[in-house]
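INTERNAL AUDIT FORM
Audit reference: QA-55
Scope: verify that the stored structure record matches its stored sequence.
Auditor: D.O.
Record contents follow.
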Amino acid sequence: MGRYISSNEVVWRILNFPIHERHPTVIHLSVHLENGQRVYFTTGNAAQCAQAPQETTLTSFFRLCTEDEFVRTLLYNQVPKYYTWNNGNKIWQRRKQGQVVPE
């Protein structure tokens, strides 16, 4: 039994493009001015958001530079090669297993 394959998928398969997965995973690296990140708030949490804005990949990168000597040798766009972004805790974590992601 077969399945329907659209013309787009046929072309991608013929040209050997990856269809489902991207390796390495693409991570959005935010870029903003100091204290210029987007903040979403309601009337109930406006004061809290103003006093303690959420961490972004950029602000977390700067914090990581103060803590880790190795990171100081990296440029911002090289960090995902050695670290993964933990979106729940909003921190960069050193890759624990496997190899360094090739360029």
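Auditor finding: record pair retrieved intact. The mean pLDDT is 81.
Action required: none
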